[in-house]
Amino acid sequence: MSGTAAIIGGGVIGGGWAARFALMGWEVWVFDPDPEAERKIAAVMANAERALPMLYEAPMPPRGAIRFVSTIAEAVAGADWVQESVPERLDLKLKIYRDIVSHASSEAVIGSSTSGFRPSQLQEGLPDASRIVVAHPFNPVYLLPLIELVPGVKTAPEAVDKAKEILTGIGMYPLHVRAEIDAHIADRFLEAVWREALWLVKDGIATTEEIDNAIRYGFGLRWAQMGLFETYRIAGGEAGMRHFLEQFGPCLTWPWTRLTDVPEFNDDLVDLIAGQSDEQSGHRTIRELERQRDDNLVAILHALKGREAAAGKLVLDHDALLRGPLGDGVPLVTVRRTVPVDWTDVNGHMNEGRYGQVFSDASEELMTHVGADRAYIDAGNSYFTAETNIKYLAETLAAEKFFVETRVTLGAGKKLRLWHEMKREADGETLATCDQFLLHVSLETRRSCPPLAHVAEAVERLAAAHGAQS
Amino acid sequence: MSGTAAIIGGGVIGGGWAARFALMGWEVWVFDPDPEAERKIAAVMANAERALPMLYEAPMPPRGAIRFVSTIAEAVAGADWVQESVPERLDLKLKIYRDIVSHASSEAVIGSSTSGFRPSQLQEGLPDASRIVVAHPFNPVYLLPLIELVPGVKTAPEAVDKAKEILTGIGMYPLHVRAEIDAHIADRFLEAVWREALWLVKDGIATTEEIDNAIRYGFGLRWAQMGLFETYRIAGGEAGMRHFLEQFGPCLTWPWTRLTDVPEFNDDLVDLIAGQSDEQSGHRTIRELERQRDDNLVAILHALKGREAAAGKLVLDHDALLRGPLGDGVPLVTVRRTVPVDWTDVNGHMNEGRYGQVFSDASEELMTHVGADRAYIDAGNSYFTAETNIKYLAETLAAEKFFVETRVTLGAGKKLRLWHEMKREADGETLATCDQFLLHVSLETRRSCPPLAHVAEAVERLAAAHGAQS
């Protein structure tokens, strides 16, 4: 499902929304009075179009255009989704909402990226506030799936349902927040941590870099995959959460929980932190840091996708949504995707092992096509690869798009032989070929056996259509 | 470097220390009066010996034994490192430290796993407290690298240096904390977040599961790789940290930062949280959750290792420490490692693409052996694989140990041909073979060219020794 999105307010957050919508096939209209908005959003889009497609095995939808207009009225006319990401000033936001609701369709969802305001605050004094929700994203918006979706007192339930459907469709995870509070959920944690971090730096306990290391070498790794409570549940052992609470509850009142004042925010503190941060990261440009962050996030999300866990499971599910059935062409196009950054090696190109993975994916697609799908495998049957011969004809680079054409060159009894050609999307050049020989097996005995009848027939049909030897 | 470690207090944390030391080749002596200690540590060790070796490409050192003794005196005699992980009661700890210092070598480092106490508190009233430091780990101790290393007022500088050396040697990251405060650094953040989380659950804003999702689908992913300040530096854009601070500093005093009271910790709150946690995770045993956590952590650490980023960079550096030069045997053993969990596929075994990666790693080791190492590649020369023929002879499962024997079957001019046999460590069965043909290339022109003289000679020498065709 795709549609038209209006982005009110560019910048890093608005640009992230624009990029995600456009890459998921939506037409995007941007309003931002900043003369630099077009340049800024282009920079976000350059990062996004490199990173986001790397998460998917499915082909991405045809990209929507991003267009810039000079009034809110033009931007929101015909929009299915309006996203406001202007600075955190309530008077400014209220003025803009009056403009939005008088020009947007009464069917459009109107989302706010606000980190702090409650949706009911944004709904005040409007003739129709029923479509307004908080849809609070996390930077980089084009990679992180979380959206805190918060309805206000005047929000219609249908607007919430529609918002969930649209957000899921563009690969996000709408977390429906049960009650409105300032700063929703995640930013309350971020604020608590930020306050503690400022004290630690101010008091000379740790530098900005030491604090970053304390997070990313320790609990940050836990939180990327399980969050807080499930992690602590494990710490409680077999006795479960209750035991953990009883063990650690009392330390809530220990002295080290009392440092909850707000440190005075003055020039000295800004100098101290900015100076340490410059020393830590100042040798790299923001563009380099963004690229590094995105590469790391792609690699982590990819890793979790392989585990079918945490945010990786969300990507996996979205991948299935994007994926259509294979056509009936000869040859079959079994894979169409982008090379993710974690597939490259010291030579700066796709590692030879990843070609094997690509051709493995191609044969898995073909298996699904002939009925040897996940259910067939779960029932105890599969094909195992017995031999491959791969010729590496041209280098393949990170972020390059490619596709694989597959022919069945032998399909008789237990034997299945496939011929794959991997080609660059841009010019059709053949990057590699693979002659792959598979045997049908029982997953119980782990020995070869004939396929079930419907699979055998489908394989034979394909083999005949592809002009295979018999 | 390895040695002897004394573990005072088993349980999840002490067991994690015991497992990490033993897997890194240390002899381990455990004292814990709990009659269940041996069973509990065996359970931790079962998880650890599955997960930790998956992080490394280098062969693991020969494993040290874990032995149980009935007195502290027996445990600490001859220990290079004594680690105390008893419950968080100061009187108990002080009693134990008196016992430890009167029996341990004056050269031993004595580390405490305490989350809350300052090292100077632990040093009170002892005849010699100069070797005592806080060495605060994070669960699971066998996977997470962070150690908060905090010296007390009586700690000798040499003890800190020795502690750093030993911790680095077992793959940990000693974060030398500049000043003693209650709860060091990371737990101050954890406590702040925990307090906020209790409020959110108590006030009905979010359930335990929703809070976990708010973390792991959003900022948890950021924190696993960059931590707090570098992430925010990016948010500040080209103007850097100062701009971020100026933009977000004021909201420190907004109303949503005031919720810093400690919620009353009573039965109602315990029931509420334990009930929600049971609903969220109660269908899985602690063992299953631990396995899932460890698999996720291995996959994330692996992904970051490939990026040479964050905690993955630590693993990479430790891997290099563990790795020795290849011998001079015929054939050469080029790879000796464990199958990580993220290498398996829907058939429950190692994916065919990963065989390609293994043989790619084998040829990279051989390249290093003949002088075509990282410096050679950085100077613009390398070998590219042109063709591989892989025969898959037996299934390979996650956590299985294997090695690869490599022969040079052709080494003349630009051409290099290798024959790899991948064998299971347990019984020597051949799992797969690979006939691999490589061409020497210039990384500037990306075309084939002869290798530099020293590499050409080394290749020819090996080819002759391996009885290659000429």
UniProtKB/TrEMBL annotation, chains A, B:
One of its GO terms (biological process) is carnitine metabolic process. Its EC number is 1.1.1.108. It is found in: Cytoplasm. Its main location: cytoplasm. It is an enzyme of class 1 (oxidoreductase). It comes from the Bacteria. CDD domains: 4HBT (cd00586). Pathway: Amine and polyamine metabolism; carnitine metabolism. Residues 5-178 form the 3-hydroxyacyl-CoA dehydrogenase NAD binding domain. NAD(+) binds at residues 9-14. Residues 185-249 form the 3-hydroxyacyl-CoA dehydrogenase C-terminal domain. The keyword Oxidoreductase applies. One of its GO terms (molecular function) is carnitine 3-dehydrogenase activity. InterPro entries: 3-OHacyl-CoA_DH_NAD-bd (IPR006176), 3HC_DH_C (IPR006108), 6-PGluconate_DH-like_C_sf (IPR008927), 6PGD_dom2 (IPR013328), HotDog_dom_sf (IPR029069), L-carnitine_dehydrogenase (IPR026578), NAD(P)-bd_dom_sf (IPR036291). Homodimer. Catalyzes the NAD(+)-dependent oxidation of L-carnitine to 3-dehydrocarnitine. PANTHER family: 3-HYDROXYACYL-COA DEHYDROGENASE FAMILY PROTEIN (PTHR48075), 3-HYDROXYBUTYRYL-COA DEHYDROGENASE (PTHR48075:SF5). HAMAP family: L_carnitine_dehydrog. This is L-carnitine dehydrogenase.
